[in-house]
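Need a sequence for this fold. Nothing fancy.
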């Protein structure tokens, strides 16, 4: 076991879904995986392993924010030999053409976090998705008539920004939406030579001020999860 995951060696698959919400991890396991078993409940951060269409898949909650997501990503890679990680999460839209429940596939992740400026002595590292996972995800979505947007997103350290219009500059440069984990996950995947992708569902809009319910955030994101599971 590692510091934050009590699984034994071999209990976690090489392919892992990473929802932020541990209750979404449980919902994914119960809804999509056969013969799923819980391998982790430390700090309530649930993790499961099961079977999806003959493939062994794990799903591990990461909590909110880059630091929390990086703890679980680091331990999954270094302690359990995980090779492919796909974040499945929610995001806030920056663009008027992004509607609630739309899917965004993150090609890259801008960030206002200082994590990589400290690593690279003030320089800007560009956290980027795995090309192979990106192609598999977009091909599956197209072949199954699932609409999606693909592009740059923002991984923000701030959820409640004091400036309600802060998103407009990001939007002007083509950034699609904001969430809080992807830049950290992509950075560690690059560091350790594994594959990572982030697939997001729009749960609220900074443009229209609309939002979905907490229950929908937890349980109503089937298409996003289907894309992710079929991208391994």
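Here you go.
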């Amino acid at each position: 076991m590692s510091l934050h995951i009590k699984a034994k060696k071999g209990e976690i698959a090489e392919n892992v879904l990473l929802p932020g919400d541990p209750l979404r991890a449980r919902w994914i396991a119960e809804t999509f995986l056969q013969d799923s078993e819980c391998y982790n409940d430390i700090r309530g951060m649930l993790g499961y392993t099961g079977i999806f269409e003959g493939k062994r898949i794990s799903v591990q909650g990461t909590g909110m924010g880059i630091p929390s997501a990086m703890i679980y990503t680091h331990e999954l890679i270094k302690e359990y030999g995980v090779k492919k990680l796909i974040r499945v999460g929610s995001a806030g839209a920056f663009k008027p053409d992004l509607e609630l429940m739309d899917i965004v596939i993150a090609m890259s992740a801008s960030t206002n976090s200082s994590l990589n400026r400290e690593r690279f002595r003030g320089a800007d590292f560009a956290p980027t998705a795995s090309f192979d996972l990106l192609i598999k995800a977009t091909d599956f979505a197209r072949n199954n008539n699932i609409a999606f947007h693909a592009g740059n997103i923002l991984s923000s350290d701030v959820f409640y920004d004091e400036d309600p219009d802060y998103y407009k500059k990001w939007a002007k440069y083509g950034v699609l939406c904001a969430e809080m984990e992807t830049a950290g996950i992509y950075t560690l995947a690059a560091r350790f030579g594994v594959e990572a992708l982030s697939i997001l569902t729009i749960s609220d809009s900074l443009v229209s001020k609309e939002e979905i319910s907490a229950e929908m955030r937890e349980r109503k994101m089937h298409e996003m999860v289907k894309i992710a599971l079929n991208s391994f």
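For context: The longest strand covers residues 195-205.
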